[in-house]
Amino acid sequence: MTGWLALLLALPAFAADNPVPKPAGLERDVAFWIRVYTEVNTNGGLLHDDRNLSVVYETIKFAANTGPRERQKIVEDARDKYIAALRRIASTSAGSLSADDQRIKDMWGNEGTPGRLLEATNSIRFQLGQADRFLEGLVRAGAWETHIAEVFANQGLPHQLAVLPHVESSFNPAAYSKVGAAGLWQFMRSTGRRYMRIDNSIDDRLDPFRSTEAAAQLLSYNYRLLGTWPLALTAYNHGAAGMRRARDSLGTDDIERIVRTYKSPSFGFASRNFYVSFLAALEIDSNPEKYFPAFKPLPELKFREVSMPSFAPIAAIQRALKVDLDDLRQLNPALRPLVWNGSRHVPKGYKLRLPYNGETWTSELLAARLSPSDQFANQPEERRYRVRSGETLASIATKYGVTTDALAQMNGLRTSAKLRAGRSLLVPPGASITVAAAQAAGSAAPKPEAPPAEAIATNTYVVRRGDSLEEIAKKTGLAQAAILKMNGLKNPNYIYEGQKLVLASAPAASGSATPPATPASPPVVAATPPPASAATAPPSRPASPAPTPARPAITPTKPVVLASATPAGGVPADEAKRESEEDVAAVQNAGKSAARAEPVSAAQAEALGPALGPAIETPQTADPIDYSVGTDDTIVVVAEETLGHYADWLGVTAQRLRNINKMKFGRPVIIGRKLKLDFSKVKAEAFEATRKEYHRTLQATYFAEHRILGTEVYIVRRGDSLWSLTQRYAGLPMWLLQQYNPDVDFSEMRAGTEIVVPKIEEVAAG
């Protein structure tokens, strides 16, 4: 047992008894995942039934250097073999089976009726082994496990939850998934923004320390909503709304019954197996020497944390403090490529981590070491370009006189990314815009494609998102040790997106991918001005009904705090909204095919994501509200919705909805009450999509400027209402209060009712 876990065994948790029980009916599933995590590496896997995990037909091991296509054929041939066997067994009388067929039949026991065996021909699945990746996670965990233990203990969370990163990311803080989740705890951008800073300068999802604090908040939030840790953990993967729907539809919070009987298109293999795979990880982490006798965890990461006294370039900090740049990168993974390449400064107030080398670093000492000319009141002025139809990263990079790779790095994109017309891109300050200006004036400027990075500098390699040193070594034909030595690197696990690796001793080719130097902003001469106050939207009537509204305007029924034009880190509100939309689109587009994908190699598994199991099927979300339409064409009214919204989304008049519901003119819809709708012009699925998009936009805009720090409990007094509560807490949005209290009837609050109130911090711009 690792020392930190043993230390926590006596600490209090949310539940007095075992908070993460292992039901007897799920033991076979846990045993299956222990096999996946400890018995088979990514050079093999288990061919099994996707419902009865005790049925493992065969352990497949691939020969060395077997390519993905050949591996896939081996798996398909084995699957065909067992499909034929199941059909044969189902149609053969007892006593006439071959030894191998009898072995298969015995696996099923009493469950192996002819009908069930025929059904099983459609549920044969291949699970890639993960023993090597799990071992890597056990080694990496040593750097952060003590901090995770402390955070969870201070939050009162069960100590067992601290092993969740084994399942999510193998304790890799730089991990990205195909659908946009990032970091040790695999936060989606939209969910992460509730608790962390995510902008052009900082992405706290990649910081193991900040993201751990956010994960503790999300897990405790899930527990308050769902009441048990098995459901709260499953909600981390499936979403709080999905687990509330599962619990309510079956009328139970029994995780075994939900796993075995709940039917939903989105509750697939990944969601069903999330809790049992967590229990498997917990068993291994509690007894690591039993499964990996020779493993040795990394030492705890030690550092000093200093609050930045002003905005400053990272190069100036490195020079002034004489700190190794690689050490700074390792200690500050949340700093974005724009900071490392000099386009943006390390923000004022950012808690910079410095090596624990005997120096007693303080904010005052840092300010004294930095020259006045290296300290600034603001970030460098930011410039943006609105993408036109047909434009590519390469064509826009040519307009601004930079390489495609540099422009992609500035915007956190792949060089092959397709751009949507209307998207806003960061462009280098001070870059030439002669061509762009000519085009804006109507000139037909050519759009030549910029050469790839490899053509610009053949002796360097620019690290892409998801790259590992092992993969780069294979691509370039060099040994990993040689690449480390040529680049003066110490740790093969710490390479980062946008990093240029030298691959030969020859001087670099002319044509750098580094953006032009950023003009200096004025040195600090006075205190940084306070952030712009949030705009308050006055009450407004909904727009006139439209047949097919693409994106309804936000029209709250009472004043609520909305995001201003430029929220934290210089990200405009429309960018925050777009990023939220892209979170969802990524899951819808990539996740649909990835959810049921069965990788047959380590590379394919890593391409789908860092999770040590199947790809996710639903986007991570903290919104517990069910926006679906009932079978009787009714919905439950939620905060920030009006009759005008429904009329717009349905393409009917508001009066039509009043007539259906026998409502008098001027009577408002009431939160928590059912309302019948008219789907004669718009299908229920389209209505649900528009409704969800409205709330995603509302939430993304708010969390571009605000962050949740924790919660407190308020006891309702006589005369309190939902409106008075939001005003009592400085304009807290009604929808956010409802999300934290989804089971409270706000229309009939009684004195003495406990209300959980999120504590909000306004995020300072820049």
Task: Explain the overall architecture.
It is a single chain. With 766 residues, the chain is mainly α. It contains 32 helices and 15 strands. The chain has a three-stranded antiparallel sheet with strand order 2-1-3, with helices on one face. Strands 4-5 form a two-stranded antiparallel ribbon. Helix 2 crosses helix 14 (269-286) and helix 3 (68-91) packs antiparallel against helix 5. The radius of gyration is 28 Å and the shape is globular. Mean pLDDT is 81; it is low at 1-16, 431-458, 505-573 and 586-595.
SSE topology:
Elements: H1 3-8, H2 27-38, E1 44-49, E2 56-61, H3 68-91, H4 99-108, H5 114-120, E3 124-128, H6 131-141, H7 145-155, H8 164-168, H9 189-192, H10 208-226, H11 229-238, H12 240-250, H13 255-261, H14 269-286, H15 288-291, E4 303-307, H16 314-321, H17 325-331, H18 337-340, E5 351-355, H19 363-369, E6 383-386, H20 393-399, H21 404-410, E7 424-427, H22 434-440, H23 453-456, E8 460-462, H24 469-476, H25 480-486, E9 500-502, E10 535-536, E11 561-562, H26 573-594, H27 602-608, E12 634-636, H28 643-650, H29 654-661, E13 674-676, H30 684-703, E14 706-715, H31 722-728, H32 734-740, E15 754-762
Antiparallel strand pairs: 1-2, 1-3, 4-5, 6-7, 8-9, 10-11, 12-13, 14-15
Helix pairs in contact: 2-6, 2-14, 3-4, 3-5, 7-10, 10-11, 11-12, 11-14, 20-21, 26-30, 28-29
Summed up, what is this model?
The chain is mainly alpha-helical and 766 residues long. The protein has 32 helices and 15 strands. The longest helix has 24 residues, at 68-91.
